[in-house]
């Protein structure tokens, strides 16, 4: 790479010298922009690694750089310049930044107008930066700031380089603008450090349309006292959608410029809508005709003014439909309500349960679509069963159009006459329209989302087309311009079919119930075979949470009338139901592509989904993002799942190390595994070398569960009530501050040492940091609740404290065994007997590696259920191996590699050591009739005891130098232990390197 950079630097030196040699000619007004672009700007960005001249031969949908035709614009009035930017630099089909070119005679360093124009393009594109250059100078702007007419040329400028500074600053320019840098996220943290507040396009537009919605709703309410909130929401959004559609068409020259600004009344707006309906059709303007309401003229005029310069800086010619879709995703997460004559916004239940709406980034939707549709071409049928604002449908449409264009060019299909656009050959409008109507389908439960999806798709259909081409289509075909997508994008509940009416016959006469559930019959709505592909990002919502806001839907899932098999699971997430529904709608060779939490591959509640995917269906590809965060501002650990009804013998799994690398080549890479590796049990993907070695020694190993019992902690159902931190001890009585902030007392004899949020080192012994009130006594290894009358006599202080919190203890969810007089017992009885004195290991569920500690006393307590924070393990009575030996086996690198291959990884590279990942680990059994095995066992046990002692001594050491000595001793002991374990497991040379690389 360094050699390549030096070559690029040398090329830049030559380019700058060539410009300097004839600079006096270039800075004359007669030297044109086109010549500048060809002679200097194109070579400059080639040096930065961009395929400016499309030497790879990509179509206009996949090429890296899009050139627009040179259009003469009055630089004195660039605010009204309605043309596209000169260059669009793209990765994976998504534009990353624009470059606006000017002649060298134009002073772009000081003149406001060129800067405004470049920033306006970048801001409307929702990009991080915009670049302005005439090669004499190169300026880079932060597009997070809304461009206004009063800002100077330096406002929001990140950097400005004179041509003779380009070589000197090549490294920093390359680190921001090169293809390599952009692919690696160089634009993610751009900041011009201005004093003004950043207002990106999407934030401002979302705020404005939300404000307009509230104003329209209140205006209609004040005049008509509308009581139907659903109808009011429908009307306000429909009206705004139509206005925005026409405003976009203006900037794309399909409508007269500033047509909306000339409208002075609601009646005039209706006339414009009627004319637009006659021209475009598509059902966009139907609903308004049914509404008997009008909007005050002054309010409409105000909205129209906000959509034009100078009130706004909008240029919808460069606003991408997916950006509008992302804005609407957030817009639709709230509904407007009128209460006591005032407007309020309330989050939808779905948005509340999923903690707000975060749209799937465009490059991820494109990657999912590419993986799903890689073997699918038009003609085909692609659907999103929870389409929202339609961004997955947009990506699917774009993918199919690009693929069809490539086919027509390669096959020379004479039936499709291609259009020569400024950026290259393209499909004609009629063919794109055909693909949209015949290949793209979607369903969503939100009728407003369906409206937006249809709007986004028709805007995308129009993008790039000229007015002349559209007029010719209407003239030649006699058809209205846009298709009516009401037969493609429909409103309904993808998960609830007409069997709901068998479950609740009264629903047919209950409009509120129908609106809440919206039953949908796929067979009658889309009466054709199956879909060739289904894509999407389903909601991640615990189905049980539906009981809080749509109880009837939750009850349906749990009834015999629901056809979804997974719904019968005690615990599940709604995304699992969407996966099952999507799979059921596929054709025999169809593909489902979706992004879902990766924990389904390992958690117990994912067993039914894993069973479905490995019995009735097959997995063809998994793209696991691990701890990498796909959704901005969220800690969500996800994977892309590609599955099919088709029988496949193997599948690929890609562990993503870099999101930018993945989206650059989304269908490439990954290890191949036989499909038989996947079952209902937790999925693991150990390195091939490790699997092969374990198969060779399988007869010498057994599962941990054959030797030991793994157990959860105590489950009090209110840890704050029982776990205390003594502040003093007097005559065998602890003083402490209780959960209510009061000073309380409890007898020391009723307490046991306890762990709470204690970090472990590998090996060592647990050091309790709290006490737990334990109202039990042990008898023959079993824990029995101390009767209350005995508690009063023997432990009066504890009894007084427990009585003070009796109401809180009684409010816990007890099992059915509660007698009424045992209100002070723990919430569950699991593991009570595990702390009676038998030695056991303890380890944290989440850690960066193996951290098993040995509690020889068997009395250090800890709390927690299936999710930890700790687990314990005790040997079965018949197990002859020592517990220290098992501690060594669990801490061994080979078994830990298996844990990591099975488990989910979380932020900070922490991963789970839950019961389901540990109990199946292969433990090398000791052949006690074999002297070599016996000697190794004895040596390993002795070394582990030494390690446990050394780690404990280091933890309690008060001297830094002593701690360092202990550390060295620990390292030496660990080296010896590893050597013995390698010998015992028969590890060949090079295996560890192959596994851990």
UniProtKB/TrEMBL annotation:
SUPFAM superfamilies assigned: S-adenosyl-L-methionine-dependent methyltransferases
UniProt keyword Methyltransferase present: yes
Reaction equation(s) it catalyzes: a 2'-deoxyadenosine in DNA + S-adenosyl-L-methionine = an N(6)-methyl-2'-deoxyadenosine in DNA + S-adenosyl-L-homocysteine + H(+)
Keyword S-adenosyl-L-methionine set for record: yes
Keywords carried by this UniProt record: Methyltransferase, S-adenosyl-L-methionine, Transferase
Region forming the signal peptide: none
Gene Ontology MF annotations: nucleic acid binding; site-specific DNA-methyltransferase (adenine-specific) activity
Protein name per its UniProtKB record: site-specific DNA-methyltransferase (adenine-specific)
Membrane spanning stretches: none
Domain Type II methyltransferase M.TaqI-like: 439-631
UniProt enzyme class: transferase
Pfam family, one: Eco57I
The enzyme's E.C. designation: 2.1.1.72
Alphabetical GO biological process terms: DNA modification; methylation
InterPro entries noted in UniProt: DNA_methylase_N6_adenine_CS (IPR002052), MethylTrfase_TaqI-like_dom (IPR011639), N4_N6_ade-DNA_methylase (IPR050953), SAM-dependent_MTases_sf (IPR029063)
């Amino acid at each position: 790479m360094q050699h390549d950079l030096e070559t690029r630097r040398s090329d830049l030196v030559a380019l700058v010298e060539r410009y300097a040699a004839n600079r006096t000619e270039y800075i004359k007004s007669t030297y044109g922009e086109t010549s500048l672009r060809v002679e200097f700007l194109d070579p400059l960005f080639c040096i930065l690694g961009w395929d400016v001249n499309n030497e790879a031969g990509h179509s206009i949908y996949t090429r890296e750089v899009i050139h627009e035709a040179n259009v003469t614009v009055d630089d004195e009035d660039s605010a009204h310049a309605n043309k596209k930017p000169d260059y669009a630099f793209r990765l994976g089909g998504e534009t990353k930044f624009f470059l606006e070119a000017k002649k060298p005679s134009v002073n772009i360093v000081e003149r406001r107008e060129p800067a405004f124009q470049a920033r306006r393009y970048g801001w409307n594109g929702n990009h991080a930066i915009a670049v302005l250059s005439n090669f004499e100078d190169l300026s880079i702007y932060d597009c997070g700031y809304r461009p206004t007419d009063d800002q100077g040329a330096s406002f929001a400028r990140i950097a400005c380089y004179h041509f003779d500074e380009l070589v000197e600053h090549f490294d920093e320019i390359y680190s921001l603008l090169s293809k390599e840098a952009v692919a690696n996220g160089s634009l993610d943290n751009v900041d011009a450090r201005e004093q003004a507040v950043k207002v990106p396009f999407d934030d401002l537009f979302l705020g404005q349309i939300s404000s307009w919605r509230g104003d329209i709703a209140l205006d209609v309410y004040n005049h008509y006292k509308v009581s139907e909130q659903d109808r009011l929401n429908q009307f306000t959004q429909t009206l705004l959608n139509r206005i925005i559609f026409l405003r976009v068409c203006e900037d794309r020259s399909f409508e007269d410029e500033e047509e909306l600004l000339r409208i002075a009344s609601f009646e005039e707006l209706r006339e414009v809508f009627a004319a637009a309906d006659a021209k475009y059709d598509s059902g966009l303007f139907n609903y308004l005709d049914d509404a008997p309401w009008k909007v005050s003229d002054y309010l409409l005029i105000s909205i129209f003014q906000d959509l034009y310069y100078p009130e706004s800086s909008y240029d919808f010619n460069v606003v991408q439909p997916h950006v509008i879709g992302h804005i609407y995703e957030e817009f639709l997460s709230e509904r407007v309500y009128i209460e006591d004559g005032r407007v309020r916004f309330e989050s939808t239940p779905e948005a509340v349960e999923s903690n707000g709406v975060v749209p799937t980034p465009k490059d991820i939707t494109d990657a999912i679509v590419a993986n799903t549709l890689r073997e699918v071409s038009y003609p085909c049928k692609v659907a999103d069963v929870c389409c929202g604002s339609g961004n997955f449908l947009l990506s699917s449409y774009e993918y199919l159009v690009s693929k069809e264009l490539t086919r027509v060019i390669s096959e020379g299909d004479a039936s499709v006459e291609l259009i020569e656009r400024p950026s290259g050959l393209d499909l004609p409008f009629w063919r794109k329209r055909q693909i949209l109507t015949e290949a793209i389908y979607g369903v969503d439960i939100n009728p407003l989302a369906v409206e937006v999806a249809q709007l986004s798709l028709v805007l995308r259909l129009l993008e790039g087309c000229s007015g002349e081409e559209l007029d010719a289509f209407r003239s030649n075909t006699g058809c209205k311009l846009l298709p009516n997508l009401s037969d493609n994008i429909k409103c309904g509940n993808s998960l609830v079919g007409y069997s709901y009416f068998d479950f609740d016959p009264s629903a047919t006469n209950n409009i509120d119930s129908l609106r809440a559930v919206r039953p949908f019959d796929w067979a009658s709505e889309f009466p054709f075979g199956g879909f060739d592909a289904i894509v999407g990002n389903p909601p991640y919502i615990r189905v049980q949470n539906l009981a809080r806001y749509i109880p009837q839907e939750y009850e349906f899932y749990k009834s015999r009338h629901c056809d979804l098999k997974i719904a019968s699971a005690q615990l599940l997430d709604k995304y699992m139901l969407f996966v099952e529904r999507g799979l059921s709608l596929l054709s025999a060779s169809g593909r489902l592509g979706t992004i879902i939490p990766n924990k389904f591959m390992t958690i117990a509640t994912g067993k039914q989904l894993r069973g479905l995917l490995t019995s009735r269906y097959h997995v063809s590809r998994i793209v696991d993002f691990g701890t990498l965060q796909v959704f901005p501002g969220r800690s969500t650990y996800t994977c892309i799942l590609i599955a099919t009804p088709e029988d496949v013998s193997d599948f690929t799994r890609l562990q993503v190390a870099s999101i930018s690398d993945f989206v650059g080549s989304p269908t490439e890479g990954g290890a191949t595994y036989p499909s038989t590796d996947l079952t209902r049990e937790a999925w693991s993907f150990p390195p091939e070398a490790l699997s092969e070695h374990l198969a060779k020694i399988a007869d010498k190993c057994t599962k941990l569960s054959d030797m030991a019992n793994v157990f959860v902690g105590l489950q009090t159902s209110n840890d704050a009530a029982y776990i205390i931190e003594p502040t003093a001890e007097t005559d065998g009585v602890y003083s402490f501050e209780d959960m209510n902030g009061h000073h309380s007392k409890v007898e020391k004899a009723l307490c046991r040492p306890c762990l709470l949020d204690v970090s472990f080192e590998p090996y060592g012994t647990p050091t309790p940091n709290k006490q737990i009130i334990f109202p039990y006594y042990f008898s023959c290894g079993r824990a029995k609740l101390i009767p209350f009358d005995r508690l009063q006599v023997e432990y009066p202080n504890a009894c007084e404290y427990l009585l003070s919190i009796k109401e809180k203890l009684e409010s816990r969810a007890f099992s059915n065994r509660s007698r009424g007089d045992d209100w002070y017992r723990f919430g569950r009885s699991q593991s009570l007997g595990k702390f009676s004195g038998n030695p056991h290991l303890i380890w944290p569920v989440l850690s960066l590696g193996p951290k098993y500690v040995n509690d020889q006393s068997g009395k250090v307590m800890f709390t927690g259920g299936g999710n930890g924070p700790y687990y314990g393990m005790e040997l079965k009575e018949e197990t002859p191996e020592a517990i220290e030996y098992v501690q060594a086996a669990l801490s061994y690198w080979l078994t830990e590699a298996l844990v990591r291959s099975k488990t989910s990884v979380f932020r900070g590279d922490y991963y789970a050591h839950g019961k389901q990942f540990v109990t199946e680990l292969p433990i090398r059994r000791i052949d006690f009739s074999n002297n070599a095995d016996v000697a190794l066992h004895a040596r390993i046990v002795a070394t582990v005891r030494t390690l446990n002692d050394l780690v404990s001594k280091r933890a309690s050491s008060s001297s830094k130098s002593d701690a360092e000595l202990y550390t060295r001793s620990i390292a030496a002991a660990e080296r010896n232990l590893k050597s013995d374990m390698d010998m015992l497991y028969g590890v060949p040379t090079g295996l560890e390197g192959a596994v851990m690389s």
